[in-house]
Q: What sequence folds into this?
């Protein structure tokens, strides 16, 4: 009697895809008309996978920064990301994601919770603060959203 063929390995639940994400949120006035911007790139190829520019209505700058991260992670997960590298010019948000600073404002706590849930669903992530001059494309997109 022939040996049964071995079962195929289980299909991965998510493609092995690492995405580099630059995000920015902007508000003209605080609060004021606000927008989010993000650019997502495939780490291996450098290909731009998505550009986001979304008007948020009247919001604070911090809400816009957090909403940019949330929207970019939504898109990265939709694109099958297994790992993301988040980069932003908001040192505050980067440190809050990293757990160095606590999120105290009641308006930000639900967004923070959603972002942390998104990040926990990934195989891994990094988060880092970059100087504003290295975040020009995300900044441009956040301003396009407001205009």
A:
């Amino acid at each position: 009697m022939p040996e049964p063929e071995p079962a195929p390995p289980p299909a991965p639940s998510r493609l092995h895809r690492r995405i580099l994400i630059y995000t920015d949120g902007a508000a003209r006035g605080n609060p004021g008309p606000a927008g989010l911007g993000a650019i997502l790139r495939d780490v291996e190829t450098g290909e731009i996978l998505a550009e986001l520019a979304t008007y948020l209505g009247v919001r604070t700058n911090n809400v816009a920064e957090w909403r940019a991260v949330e929207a970019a992670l939504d898109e990265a997960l939709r694109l099958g990301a297994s790992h993301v590298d988040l980069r932003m010019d908001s040192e505050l948000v980067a440190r809050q994601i990293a757990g160095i600073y606590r999120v105290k404002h009641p308006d930000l706590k639900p967004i923070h919770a959603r972002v942390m849930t998104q990040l926990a669903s990934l195989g891994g992530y990094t988060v880092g603060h970059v100087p504003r001059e290295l975040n020009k494309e995300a900044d441009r997109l956040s301003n396009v959203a407001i205009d």
